[in-house]
From TrEMBL, chains A, B:
Bilayer topology annotation: Multi-pass membrane protein
Name this protein carries in UniProt: H(+)-exporting diphosphatase
Record's GO cellular component terms: endomembrane system; membrane
UniProt KW keywords: Ion transport, Magnesium, Membrane, Translocase, Transmembrane, Transmembrane helix, Transport
EC number assigned by the record: 7.1.3.1
GO MF term list: diphosphate hydrolysis-driven proton transmembrane transporter activity; inorganic diphosphate phosphatase activity
Chain segments annotated as transmembrane: 6-26, 80-99, 111-134, 155-181, 293-314, 334-353, 373-396, 425-445, 451-470, 514-534, 554-573, 629-662, 718-737
Organism: Trieres chinensis
Alphabetized InterPro entries for the sequence: PPase-energised_H-pump
Subcellular location: Endomembrane system
Pfam family, any one: H_PPase
Length: 747, 747
């Protein structure tokens, strides 16, 4: 039989090679306005205009502007991250070493993992941005050709580059680190230390994800909201109109927020769920060897292969030939990968897990006996649960179903009823996902204790490569449309990219459902690992009967924990609102000073860079306070008030964050699609269509929804995960302070 | 020394007498348009017009219309409540009797308490509505006089009638019930059963409060939002303009929702906190007698006396002579009662509690020794905590401070940024109240275990009479303004009532802060009592080491519990949105069919009754699903899944409800006051004032805020309390089902 190492490294390399192949396919498309297609009557911008060359030049110009904007933002953002990593790795080194009785090796290994996790996250985000920018313009060009296959495939392949590269890189770095650490910890009894040091990898990934999601989220939405407010409301020009000074910033935002930020987020989830499963399952290694212990990583490796096979369905076996095929193709990806994962997981479990193995329960003295079918079932519960949550999310955010149509109807009586209906929709959409999560938690917890919860989280993310592909596909299409508009191509091109984007919007919402659900499971698993660590460190003095919520300190921190997501959402939303208002003022200033910018065929371009600068500066400044809150709260709680307080904090935050994240993402998605639904309506229908008062009311909802769905909502994932992984990494340190009582001796 | 019974009954009678005196003072004001005041140039409505008689007639006409609308709604609502009480008292009788091994006495006593609690709540609500309607028009008349003292005092006295009558009635009924039950349970050892049967009183109070808050809340906001949308947005007439068909329904709503509903809510809190304290402290009776056991009720009695004394500050010692005095007068009430309560509580504790007494901790085997100062400190923590939360609420909702002004500024860039800022404000406003609550919980829990938490809840509500006075004052002024507008009195009258109302808005927000904070403590105390009951019933087999949140079922239900408040908010918000849209359509129909209704001096009145009917029917229909959810969820969870699941559900709901309730109430209050702030701005200022686009953006926020602050937000209080008290009442029943494992044998 093949060894685990062969499979894991093989899968990682396969993923990277596949990403390279997809990239090659994209790179074959020249950035050149298409002359043979149905859309070659492009309107030139300058007086020489009218010919394809001028358009090509314009395309290149826009491409360069977006590329440079994204590059300069990411550089600035990653500079901040660099300093953060530098300072925080010193903190990790010192606190972990001190917490383990000055075991410098564990401190250093944890620090190295942290740096590697952070580095991989940065590379993933940067790579994603590059690929996306590279592919946007090529998608636009492909959309000039007749038929849907070419442009869909281009955007889909762009997603695949990101999806597979990230998975490959994540698995590769994680596993290589493990192999290196194993040379220092060769004995199975020591692997518990190995896996503990590895948790730094999750912490690094999630820290960068926090900054990426928040910084990128503020950037993209400040630009988007700003462009919307000015363009649509104040001057009646579309958001991607080249005369709108915020338009390049808006398109840059799609790449740095929706691609780079989201990539870092999901990389973080992957890293953390793997670390949680490894820490909890490290005792498996003692009894049954390395290959059994690394079962969670094998699942991820197998997932890559499954996703690769299924991706042929979209690009080759059932290619997209009509507009209606687009959404189906993406949905087929999600469903087919989930279905194919089921037998794959069973085979993996029976192949690599011993026929039975023992695990100690997180609470009490019970020893569980686990068979492969039990572990496989936990993984599958996660995979299937993810799909169900995804499909429910689709029901609540796609305008093919009643909820979004009700929101659209509510626009008839103005923006206020639109808001009320949209918020109510978000709150209501929480019900089924939470029940599904509760079922997955209960089922996996009962079957395999905390190890089961961690496996379920792995299961949620097992088709990550596909999830990421689809997630990246959306912003690429969005940007392709923006470029078409800015380059003043034939409106038919824009219509095509809009149709591609609409499907992407819904599937992006599905992706968010996945991300939030997996984050909840990951956080619970990390919390379980934290409790196990503390129990172990305290020789069963703490938490051996579980975590009592009627401990005064724990209860007090339960409600404080529940407050954190609200405070976080408040900070991030206000940052977006504030930056958007600055953007509006800047744009207005430009129009006031140079009114001819608004001419039908202006001879001068607006100052795009000023808007890019506002977004960049605002997001870098505004990402720090919420980031600091999320990192410092668990750290200070653990240090000052001890582990009982920290337990309450983590669980409270988890409970509130799940609900708020789901509701915010879905409200935002629903508003966006309600607006699109109204735009599609004819002026004679009862929804009156584009430009009507009903449409204006819908735009208000969409604008409010922007920070909901792309800044605060998805960043709440990271809030729960990051707080939990941080607690796990510093578990020994917290216990070392007055036996878990904190500096205030609260235990 | 006086006996506890003398003090309690004395205080209750005093409160009732004082309410009667205040009522007499109001009734001396004749409903007659004032000819001597500065505002006697009233504009007559009909062609005979111009004289005071026509105005008087008009005043009486409006008064009658509002009175009849309110009366008919409450009758309809209480008919639903009657059937609910009938059916549910049978359920209480049977389930409690069965759960206690067919102890029919306990079943019957619990049922009688339930009926009495429900009855008292209905009487309180009805009485409040009567007094408010009676006083509204008299406040309008008083506002015609020169000076501020008369009109302020009239509105304040109306509040006092409700405040003192409700407190008096609540204490009287509760205590008399106890005295009657004592004849059956004369031995101190049996008092535990006595107090348990008494919990039905809290359940009854809270059930009616649920329907009152939700039904009344939907009624008032459907009418308000409907009137706003049509009046301000569609036709440009003010919301209280007599030509607006929804205007009477809007004014009826103030009385049935903001007065009757809120009265029932706070009565419920009072009843539940007292019941929780009595159940937890019942063992005190065994060692130290009846007077020590009823200490919590004595505190409430003393509170009445303190509130009575302080009320002279507002009406006589420092009467309101200028506009600026209004807000100060109300704030002085809150602060003075809190300060005076501190020595009063100490005296009561040292007077009635033994120098030390023992209490068993809710978790573990610890026996706590409690001294009077400790009990007094818990009560005081509650009282002071309530004041701090109130003042923070004021900071976030009054336009004297930065947060609301920022929201007003955000209106400059349209309704979307207004929404983003307002929601962010609400989320942010959660931070300090939650920290204060956590401190109160930790402090009181550490000092006196769960008994301390219950005492803190009592402390929160100790100046309930004053809180209610101020809460009722607001809608009375609001209605007085509406009447002035509808009767077309001099605009100066409206300006005066508006100024009175603005202060009332802020203090109403303070009152909501109180209500939410106390609800959180009450729920925790009730949960503690529930755990104690189960522990006792199971002979320490369950919960003796606390409630472990890492029990799979408990954790699964923690996140389900966290979902309940969101689902509840979704249902109630959507109900308001739906009913408001129906209202808009009805109004539009009237205007379309009879366009001359919009003439400057119409000869015909719109069909007010049609709008009243829509609000009534919508609210009665729409209050049932959320009410059923809140009642059935804990009941079915306990019956099907057992007590571990139920524990998770209660705590999860508590954590999420606190945050959501505070944020929704404060967002709503802030939007309302941001709108008022913009209305006060002059057209030359940067906020542009009434009628501008900035104002229109503010109106959108205000409209969204209506269901936030007056329907969903405050009703979330009741969600947590009702779920907790229901679990406590049926604790024995749940344990009786498979030893707390539920029908599904989950334990």
């Amino acid at each position: 039989m093949v060894s685990a190492t062969a499979i894991i490294l093989g899968a990682a390399v396969l993923a990277l090679v596949w990403a390279a192949i997809q990239f090659l396919a994209i790179s074959k498309i020249p950035v050149k306005s298409n002359e043979g297609g149905e859309a070659d009557e492009t309107t030139g911008l300058t007086s020489e205009g009218g010919d394809a060359d001028a358009t090509t030049e314009r395309l290149l110009e826009i491409y360069t502007a977006i590329y440079e904007g994204a590059e300069s933002f990411l550089k600035a953002e990653y500079t901040v991250c660099f300093w953060f990593v530098l300072v925080f790795s010193a903190i990790v080194l010192i606190l972990v070493s001190w917490g383990t009785g000055w075991d410098w090796v564990r401190g250093a290994f944890t620090m190295v993992s942290f740096v590697l996790g952070a580095g991989t996250s940065i590379v993933s985000g940067y790579l994603g941005m590059k690929v996306a920018v590279y592919s946007n313009v090529r998608t636009t060009v492909s959309a000039q050709k007749s038929g849907w296959t070419a442009c869909f495939n281009t955007a889909f392949r762009a997603g695949a580059v990101m999806g597979f590269a990230l998975c490959g890189l994540g698995i590769l770095m994680l596993y290589l680190t493990m192999l290196v650490y194993r040379t220092h910890y060769p004995q199975p009894e020591e692997w518990i230390y190995l896996t503990e040091c590895l948790t730094g990898y999750g912490l690094g990934g999630s820290s960068i994800a926090m900054f990426g999601r928040v910084g990128g989220g503020i950037y993209t939405k400040a630009a988007d909201v700003g462009a919307d407010l000015v363009g649509k409301v104040v001057h009646g020009i579309p958001e991607d109109d080249p005369r709108n000074p915020a338009t390049i910033a808006d398109n840059v935002g799609d790449n740095v927020g929706d691609v780079a930020g989201m990539g870092s987020d999901l990389f973080g989830s992957f890293a953390e769920s793997t670390c949680a499963a490894l820490v909890i399952g490290s005792s498996v290694g003692v009894s049954d060897g390395w290959d059994a212990m690394v079962f969670p990583i094998i699942v991820s490796g197998v997932g890559v292969a499954v996703c690769l096979v299924c991706s042929f369905l979209a690009t080759d076996i059932l290619p997209v030939r009509k507009e209606e095929h687009v959404e189906t193709a993406l949905k087929v990806q999600l469903i087919s990968t989930t279905l194919l994962m089921i037998p794959a997981i069973f085979l993996t479990a029976f192949g690599f897990l011993p026929t039975q193995f023992a695990l100690k329960a997180v609470v009490g003295e019970t020893e569980l006996t686990i068979a492969p079918w039990m572990a496989a079932s936990c993984v599958i519960m996660g995979t299937v649960g993810g799909l169900i949550i995804g499909l429910i999310t689709e029901y609540f955010t796609s305008h093919s179903y009643r909820p979004v149509r009700e929101v659209a109807d509510a626009c008839k009586t103005g923006p206020a009823t639109n808001m009320i209906y949209g918020i109510a929709l978000g709150y209501k959409s929480v019900i089924i996902p939470v029940v599904v999560l509760a079922l997955v938690i209960y089922g996996s917890f009962r079957l395999c204790d905390m190890y089961g919860v961690a496996l379920a989280a792995i299961g949620f993310l097992s088709n990550l490569a596909t999830g990421l592909t689809i997630d990246v596909y959306g912003p690429v299409c969005d940007n392709a449309g923006g470029i078409a508009e800015m380059a003043e191509l034939d409106p038919a091109v824009r219509e095509k990219t809009d149709a591609l984007d609409a499907a992407g919007n819904t599937t992006a919402a599905i992706g968010k459902g996945f991300a939030i659900g997996s984050a909840a499971l990951v956080s619970l698993a990390l919390f379980g690992a934290f409790v196990t660590r503390i129990r172990h460190s305290s020789d069963d003095a703490l938490f051996s009967d579980g975590v009592n919520m009627l401990e005064p300190l724990t209860f007090a921190f339960l409600i404080i924990g529940g407050m954190i997501p609200f405070a976080f959402a408040a900070m991030t939303m206000k940052s977006v609102g504030f930056a958007a208002m600055m953007m509006v003022m800047e744009v207005q200033r430009q129009f006031d000073e140079r009114p001819h910018l608004l001419d039908a065929n202006p001879t001068e371009r607006p100052d795009y860079d000023a808007c890019i600068k506002i977004s960049t500066e605002a997001s870098l400044k505004e990402m720090l306070p919420p980031g600091a809150m999320v990192i410092l709260t668990p750290l200070l709680t653990g240090i000052l008030f001890g582990v009982n307080a920290l337990s309450g904090l983590l669980v409270g935050a988890l409970i509130a964050a799940v609900q708020l994240a789901i509701s915010m993402s879905n409200s935002g998605g629903a508003w966006d699609n309600a607006k699109k639904y109204i735009e599609k309506a004819s002026p004679d229908s009862d929804l009156k269509g584009k430009g009507s008062d009903i449409h204006k009311a819908a735009v208000v909802g969409d604008t409010v929804g922007d920070p909901f769905k792309d800044t605060s909502g998805p960043a709440l994932n990271i809030v729960m995960k990051l707080m939990a992984v941080l607690s796990l990494v510093f578990a020994d340190t917290f216990y070392a302070i007055n036996n878990g009582g904190g500096l205030f001796h609260m235990a």
